[in-house]
Amino acid sequence: MSIAGLTSKGQITIPAKVRVDLNLREGDQLEFIQQEDGTWQVATKNLSVMSLCGAVKTDISLSDNEIKACISEVYSGKDNNDEQDDRVAV
Q1: Rounded to 5°, angle at Cα 21 from 16 and 23
Q2: Are 41 and 35 in contact (CB under 8 A)?
Q3: Which residues lie across from 33 on neighbouring strands?
Q4: pLDDT exceeds 90 at position 40
Q5: What is the pLDDT of residues 45-90, one digit of tens each?
Q6: CA–CA separation, 46 vs 30, rounded Å?
């Protein structure tokens, strides 16, 4: 269990282990959500896609141009391949 103290200005210092476990950085926002049973849940609010880099290990390798083509395909709503392919959705 980790405990944080509250200052007279209503600020808390999140313990280092919690910051590391939640991958929190300066400027990140936390959302406080009250549950039906009266307890509170704290969640990170602004995770970026970049924070997920390296989260999934794969042997698939795509060039920048291949990634851009996949993104363009998704935004256009078109699928240039009638057959199933092995590309990863971006």
Answers
A1: 90
A2: yes
A3: 41
A4: yes
A5: 766 666 667 777 788 888 888 888 888 888 876 655 545 555 555 5
A6: 8
